[in-house]
Amino acid sequence: MTLTVEVVELVGRKNVYHSKTGKVTLEPRYSTDSEVYPFDLCVHGISTQSREVHKVKNLSQMFPVDSTVFFIGPTYYGEQGVVLGCEKGLVKFQFFQKVEPNFGEIIRNKDVGCLKLFLTFLILIV
After folding, report:
1. Most buried one in 40, 57, 73, 122, CB count within 10 A?
2. pTM of the model
3. Residue 26's closest CA among 37, 35, 17?
4. Residue 78: is its pLDDT beyond 80?
């Protein structure tokens, strides 16, 4: 007879802001799906709690002024910004939208550039 256990795996940790206390804690995140394993394959005595989980921070420690951040929203995904400050549970950021370079002139002159490169190559061979 094989004894099995249903397990929910620890997939990571997430910083959670508690608005009532103004503190930020690092809390474990578990998988939404459980899996079944044989009891014999389980390792016993591993602590799931670590000291990191109970470290308490506030927003100003997590987001120091002038630190670099990246936007992960849908409109300007990946844009770089800086932290302007924190007050009353809100963090103020400033993001810099990058302007796409204009490659029009390069595209128009591509044939001229290829010809110069080809002539240079011929001169080096001869």
Report:
1. 57
2. 0.49
3. 17
4. yes
